[in-house]
Structure formats: structure tokens, C-alpha cells
Design brief:
The protein is of the alpha+beta class and 313 residues long. The chain has seven helices and eleven strands. The relative contact order is 0.15. Residues 35-71 have low confidence and may be disordered.
Length: 313
């Protein structure tokens, strides 16, 4: 199809696995292409006498538009003797372009909350074996994803997209879970995550992560996400400030979770105790998400995690 219509595949945004261009992408590109104007005819066919140019133009039209400001180019970098030059893979190029586009489009703001995971650690320790017998690894990420999905319904502006000067509030809550791979980054999606119990969320995270690593995901399993979670904490990162995954308006970053000394109040008396703690950061698009909206959402996620119900495990 691309050859038939003389299209450059590299200029088409791919929605398939790892950014592959699919048949539907080509069709959408063709449908979106502007029709050739009737006036664009060969010069020989134009009438010899053209209509006279008006002597005066309306004020708005008589003022020339300011020329576009060129974005600063990337610096020229040379390889030195002994260096190894490795051309980018397609997924690396797509990731780079997507990240630059997101920083250019969205007004990125970050808010960071500390969460006491001691309650989650106790529940996880008590139920980990039961989940393992069902073939599911019960991780902290499963609890976090469940808390996020449950609270997105109460905070719909975090589960939205920007379309021009309008906001699209998504009906479905589709959680993207970023998976770091040797060959790049991919974000498989848990569809309608708010309708799943903790077991279902944990199973979906295990399944999608494993199939992402073995390149067995279906193209539709990396599409239509409405909110993304990334988890650099598994590598020891205290916290990060990630870039929003367009066209979404927010992304949650999970920092490392570890035991820490903390001051707690017991029977009105402050005492030193060992608590399991970690940081969560939310990057959000300030075009439609106000700081108060983001902080209320994060406060609810924190409260859900710190008082997670026994019956939900």
C-alpha cells in the first residue's frame, strides 16, 4: 500500500508493537492527507490575465505573520578513535521522538509523596505463598496498581487526554505498566484495571511483563492506555520524574521500597520504629490538571495503600 501511494513509511506514526506501522496506520495516513487544491494546476493551463490584486487589505491580513522560530539543533558530535558507533533501533528512535514530543506538548509538573508500606508489607508476607500456589507473584507494584486504578475513577481528570482545546475524559481505566527490556522500553496495558481484584491485577502484571520480555505481546496489548505506571525502584532508584506518555496526562513513578527508621506516635507518645517506606511521584500535564487535583489524587492513593483492606487481598 505504501509503495502504491508513494508513501514514506518513516513519516507515518506506527501504532503496532514496538511502533510498527500497520495497515490501519497507512489507511489513517491516507485519509488524513489533505486533498490537492483545485488551483494547483500546471502554469500553462492558467488564464493569461489574473484577477487584479486589491489595493488595500484588511488590517489583520496586511500584517505579515511572524516567521517561525527554529528550534535549536542538536550539537554535532564526532566519534573519536576507539569509540563504538551503534545506530539507533527503530524502537529507540520512536522512544526518543515520543519523549521529545511529550516535553514539547505537555506542561510537565511533578508532585512527590512518601508512603508507609508497612501495612502492604504485612499483607504481602501473609498472602505471598497463597498467590504463588496460583502461579502469581504478589509484588508491591500490584498493590500500587490496584490503588491507582480504584482512585482514578474518583479523579477522572487524571484519566483523560487533551484534544485541541477540549478534554476527553476516558470511560475505561487502562493502566500501562512500563517494562524495561534489553532492546528498549515497552508499555503493555491492563484493560479496565479498576474492574479487576488484586489477584487479577497481579496476574496481569506478571503475564504482560513476561510476554513483553519474550516478545509475545499482541499489538493491541500496547495500545489505548489511559494512565501509566513506571517502576525504576526495582533498580534501586529512590524516585524519578518521568515524562508523560502521550496522549495521556499523567504518569506515576514508583521509587525503591525499603525499611527505614521513623518516628511514630503510639498511645500519644512519639517513639522510634522500623517502617517500610518509599516515594511515589506523579508527573502531570498542568494544561488540564491543577496541582490541587494531582495532590488530592496522590493523597487518596497514599491513604488506600496505608490502610489496605484485608478483604481486598
Amino acid at each position: 500500500m505504501a509503495a502504491e501511494h508513494n508513501l514514506d513509511i518513516g513519516a507515518i506514526q506506527g501504532t503496532g508493537l514496538a511502533g510498527r506501522v500497520t495497515r490501519n496506520d497507512v489507511l489513517a495516513h491516507l485519509e488524513a492527507a489533505p486533498a490537492q487544491p483545485a488551483a494547483a494546476q500546471p502554469a500553462a493551463t492558467q488564464p493569461a490575465a489574473a484577477a487584479p490584486v486589491p489595493a488595500a487589505l484588511p488590517p489583520a491580513a496586511s500584517t505579515p505573520a511572524a516567521p517561525p522560530v527554529a528550534a535549536p539543533g542538536a550539537p554535532h558530535v564526532e566519534a573519536w578513535e576507539g569509540d563504538r558507533v551503534e545506530p539507533w533501533s527503530r524502537i529507540r528512535k520512536l522512544t526518543a521522538d515520543h519523549m521529545i514530543m511529550s516535553r514539547r506538548v505537555s506542561a510537565h509538573v511533578n508532585t512527590i509523596f512518601e508512603v508507609d508500606y508497612t501495612r502492604i508489607a504485612q499483607l504481602r508476607s501473609a498472602r505471598k505463598r497463597d498467590y504463588a500456589e496460583r502461579g502469581v507473584n504478589l509484588t508491591y507494584l500490584a498493590f500500587i496498581a490496584k490503588a491507582v486504578a480504584d482512585n482514578l475513577r474518583k479523579h477522572p481528570v487524571l484519566n483523560a487526554s487533551v484534544a485541541g482545546e477540549s478534554t476527553i475524559f476516558r470511560r475505561d481505566i487502562n493502566l500501562g505498566i512500563a517494562v524495561a527490556l534489553d532492546w528498549g522500553l515497552i508499555v503493555p496495558v491492563i484493560r479496565r484495571a479498576d474492574e479487576l481484584a488484586l489477584l487479577g491485577v497481579a496476574r496481569a502484571i506478571n503475564d504482560l511483563g513476561e510476554r513483553a520480555r519474550t516478545r509475545k505481546l499482541n499489538p493491541d496489548e500496547v495500545q489505548r492506555g489511559t494512565f501509566t505506571i513506571t517502576n525504576p525502584g526495582v533498580f534501586g532508584s529512590v524516585i524519578g520524574t518521568p515524562i508523560i506518555n502521550q496522549p495521556q496526562v499523567a504518569i506515576l513513578c514508583v521509587g525503591t521500597i525499603e525499611k527505614q527508621p521513623a518516628v511514630i506516635t503510639v498511645d500519644g507518645t512519639d517513639t522510634l520504629a522500623i517502617r517500610t517506606r518509599g516515594l511515589l511521584s506523579l508527573a502531570f500535564d498542568h494544561r488540564i490538571v491543577d496541582g490541587s487535583d494531582a495532590d488530592r489524587f496522590m493523597a487518596d492513593v497514599k491513604a488506600t495503600l496505608e490502610s489496605f483492606s484485608d478483604s481486598a487481598v
